Amino acid sequence: MPFPFRKFASLFRRSKQESIVRGPGITDPISNLAEIELPVCHNESARPMTEVLETVRLGPHLYQLIHSPGTLEGLARGDIVKLKPDDPRGFEVVSRSGNLCVWFYFAEIGRNRCPDGDFVRESVERFGGTCDGGGNTNLIFSIPVPFGFPAIEALFNGLTSQFPGSSWLFGNVYDPWNGFVPLAWCEAFPPFSDPPAPDISPGP
What we know:
Blueprint: E1 6-8, H1 16-22, E2 33-40, E3 49-59, E4 62-65, E5 80-83, E6 91-95, E7 99-105, H2 115-127, E8 130-134, E9 138-144, H3 149-162, E10 167-170, E11 174-175, E12 181-182
Parallel strand pairs: 1-3
Antiparallel strand pairs: 2-3, 3-4, 4-5, 5-6, 7-9, 7-10, 8-9, 11-12
């Protein structure tokens, strides 16, 4: 008997108003807000689930993400998708914003909402990323891919070294529906000639 689906929704998010006004790649006014629900890729031993995403409706079946997802792979803040109910993944990407989705995980529940979480969030925001919220243990970030993978990886490797048991991963660099092969979209956004440098002070 198949597992019933469950919805994933981050425990906390930045306000829609703030995200639309300040978020890169968001184009339409707040009057067109809409929620869409998409399946999260899973293997046979995992419980099927979906994630509800806050978006701006751009047209029939066309939506732009306000935040990067918290568990759904393949998308990030500002991406434009077309809903495809007959496709197992439920959507196709129409346009990429150029943002990476990055998930940072603490080992303990709730630590992401304490001073340690503030330290990680502030470090990423100094670098130029945006915190889109989080779940029980994680924080969700959007970071422009032109900052460059070496600098972004150095930032998050430095942060994990501050907090034993923590980890991080990209949410939209590999395709979970196709053997986790790299997605080629990043190649359309060449790195900046002078990318920002990570600034990680000693942890709290």
